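Narrative of activities, Objective 1.

The group set out to show that a structural description can be obtained from nothing but a protein's sequence at a throughput compatible with the screening campaign. Below is one input-output pair from the validation batch, recorded exactly as produced.
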Amino acid sequence: MKILLANKFFYLNGGSERVFFQERDFLLEKGHSVLDFSMKDDRNFTSPYSDYFVPNIDYHKDGSLSKKISQMGLFIHSNIAVAHVKNLINEKKPDVAHLHNIYHQLTPSIIPALKSNGVKVVLTLHDTKLICPGYLALNNGEICTDCEGKNFLKPFISNCQNSRTKALLLASEAFFHKWKGSYVAVDLFISPSKFIADLTSKRIPRSKIRVLNNGIDLDQFQSNFDDRGYALYFGRLSKEKGIKTLLKAHAGMDKKYPLKIVGTGPLEDVLKREFSDVEFWGYKSGGELNEIIRNAAFVVVPSECYENCSMVVLEAMAFGKPIIGSRIGGIPEQVEDGKTGLLFEMGNVQQLSSKIEVLAEDKELRKEMGRAAREKLEREYSLKNHCEGLLDIYSELLGRDVRKDVPERLQ
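Output recorded for this entry:
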């Protein structure tokens, strides 16, 4: 099988890139031909197809007014991306194109280009973009699904982005691709959670969506059911991640349990000033981050936005840690309340405080839940299961068992 993999970042920029590269490595290991399509960047990993990548565009960088105006059209439709992907198709002739995070730089305009050239198209739903032009289903920090995949003027009317210019641009993009039928040309959608699949079915027929949980390589994580007596948050320090709710909950506890915060973000300086009794460890990665997670008593995921299939939750489970998580989005699919962790009402400071106290005071319960979390991970979220499920989806799409496309020595 020859497959084109598209993602606008070709380096580890976030959770969607981690999934992208895991799948890419698996396909290459199994002997399939992988064609990369992305955006040029000095941080990119090496690719034999980098000549086909589109020029780098960073919409967040300051620039002249004329430059910003010229970029507005590229934000919606990229002639360059369409031309480059057509060249790649014509020269390499892929069977399938699997698209991940393509918005704004590669643009959904590449979908009809792929389809019109006889390529089957799969798109992974890493977020709520098809329902909400602004990705996060938030209106000035509050959960909002008013657009429902069709009412795209609402961001402009409600000014949910706190910028009518940005809202108008996002609305224009959404209307353009609805008019063009870009997403209609997708053959199958992959959703990492049932929640996102059901939410997206407001726009896409549910019959076109396959649920495939994110996976994690179990061999890379050694569980540790013991701990060094501290609660842990690791992730972005921003409002939608619920970090301030967590810090308020911790501050309101009669008996303070050690809390460590790992990560950076727009709220970092403000939170450090307001909550001085908490350890802020900044950005950590690799082995250093793994050691911090391995020794934690439990991990808190207090999100106040629709998480999909959280890689933070999966990493905590991999190390045998119970999770305290918001009852929102895909988190309740990952965390079994009272078995692998505890759930609380999103934004409820008092309820979160009580959940922290339950685990802080009972080490045996932490061990029991940690073991159950690791077992659930092995059962439902292994990378092997994820990748085998991916091949099943490709086989369904192509009408043949793609495993038989691989030389016998590699099967």
